[in-house]
Design goal:
two-stranded antiparallel sheet; about 160 residues; about 45% helix; 3 domains; about 10% strand; Membrane-bound Lytic Murein Transglycosylase D, Chain A; mainly alpha
Amino acid sequence: MGIVNFTIKWYINMKFKIKLLLMVFSFILLQACFHHKQTTPVIPHQVLSGENLNAIINLYGISDNDVEVLIKFNDLQPPDYYIRVGDTLYVPKYMILKPKSCYQKHVVVKGDNVYSLTRKYGLSKGDIDNWNNLKDSNQLSIGQRLIVSPPNNPACSQSNRR
């Protein structure tokens, strides 16, 4: 009977030590993540009317590999990662790719229409009309070059503007 009591006490004691160790490890990991979030240089982006997460990702040229990191960095919740006008998203500077031009462009191909472009780039019809001085956006021509990013793209520096 003595050996059974010793084994049970040892098992309970070991189980407690493992739980304690896991709690300490979780706390350390949480602190490391919090510290990383505080020390990562970021660009704050205030969400404007008509913007969605897709538009912001395109605006800063964030790579597909970094999208999930951006979502977690800003504590956005699935399934739709909803953001509202006036929200501030923090874009880590290391994610921002310098575009070749300060304007992202799209060359119209057969089958393109304004609606498909608004969905593809996360824009409004008004944005496409305004940025391209379109009088009738229903009359797109194959080969036409359209600006599909804001003129004040924050991923561009003054020296990079063309």
